[in-house]
Design a protein that fits this description.
The complex is a heterodimer of chains A (61) and B (255). With 61 residues, chain A is mainly alpha-helical. Chain A has a domain at 25-61. Helix content of chain A is 84%, strand content 0%. Chain A has helices at residues 6-11, 16-60. By secondary structure, chain B is mostly helical. Chain B has helices at 13-45, 59-86, 89-121, 129-150, 154-168, 171-181, 201-233, 246-254, and strands at residues 191-192, 196-197. The chains are: A mainly alpha (61), B mainly alpha (255).
């Protein structure tokens, strides 16, 4: 291992800003994509449910 | 048939929906595990580069993201082509599900590339062949998605975006070979099928682990998205009894 300390690790030999921006941006994009899909699924399920329950209301009325 | 599984069965959304649901956790867990190992290798095992210092470590996200951006475009175009040829709904749904993830990796390839370019070339952006063709790829993904949202009729939207995706596939070899065909500021391939690898083996291992992890992540996310597309498109209970999505099951139980 080439890191003497934690601060040395985060400094990345002076390139910390570039290296960590790359990795954090990638992680954020992936987390955002998963969360967006979660919400999209919930919305699609809610719409299905509303459509199905709506149609049953009409037939029972 | 010699193998006991009827693979054609899974070409219908009704059958593919539950299969995808069962596969997602496996791909997701494998992606997280490999990313963990890849990041450990990349930050703690791989040595410092003698030319670029620690800045080179951006390679562990940059190259996998760039490879995925091109690979996903080809896969999207193949699904679009199958959809056009066989008029298969599931193929068009797969093409639709791939586009956002491909666009995300293209954006990340460009962003991490800028982060690498600034310390090594002194510029965030240059109009060289590799960078410009990758930027065009981002526009192509945007075009495929915008074309779909701009056409109300789903079948026409499927066909229009499929034609757009298929025509645009010519850009993928241009991106890949741009560093050979033109004199670019972007460095040449570090890993080549012809000459092998020019990197230290631990660097290469970390990069390949991250690539496989991104690949597994893409499969998990695309399967999750194609399930959303199926719920959105197949509006009412067209599903088989034992394979219907949970939402319909809930509604049936609520009655």
């Amino acid at each position: 291992m080439q890191w003497g300390s934690a601060s040395e690790f985060f400094a990345m030999g002076g390139y910390g800003l570039y290296v960590w921006t790359s990795f954090v941006a990638t992680a954020l994009c992936m987390v955002w994509e998963v969360l967006a899909l979660w919400r999209r699924r919930a919305a699609a399920c809610a719409e299905q449910r509303a459509a199905l329950l709506g149609s049953t209301d009409e037939t029972t009325a | 048939m010699s193998i006991g599984i009827n693979w054609l069965k899974y070409s219908s959304p009704q059958a593919f929906y539950p299969l995808a649901g069962r596969l997602i956790p496996w791909f997701a867990c494998a992606a997280v595990a490999l990313m963990g190992v890849g990041l450990y290798m990349g930050f703690f095992v791989a040595p410092t580069d003698f030319q670029q210092g620690e800045a080179y470590r951006i390679i562990f996200v940059h190259v996998p993201a760039a490879w995925m951006s091109m690979f996903l475009y080809v896969v999207m175009a193949v699904w679009a082509g199958i959809g056009m040829g066989l008029n298969a709904r599931l193929s068009f749904m797969m093409a639709q599900a791939i586009a956002p993830t491909g666009a995300m990796f293209t954006f990340l390839a460009l962003l991490t590339g800028a982060m690498w370019g600034k310390p090594t070339w002194g510029a965030w952006w240059v109009w060289d062949a590799r960078l410009t063709s990758e930027l065009i790829l981002l526009f192509q993904y945007a075009g495929v998605m915008l074309l779909r949202t701009s056409i109300d009729d789903v079948r026409r939207a499927d066909r229009a975006s499929a034609v757009f995706a298929l025509v645009g596939v010519v850009n993928v070899p241009i991106i890949y070979f741009s560093v050979q065909w033109w004199n670019t500021l972007h460095q040449g391939a570090s890993v080549s099928m012809a000459t092998g690898s020019k990197m230290a083996s631990t660097m290469l291992t970390a990069m390949l682990l991250m690539t496989v992890a991104f690949w597994l992540y893409s499969i998990a996310v695309i399967l999750a998205r194609v399930r959303c597309v199926m719920i959105e498109r197949e509006s009412l209970p067209v599903w088989n009894d034992d394979e219907k999505p949970a939402v319909i099951q809930e509604v049936v139980e609520a009655r």
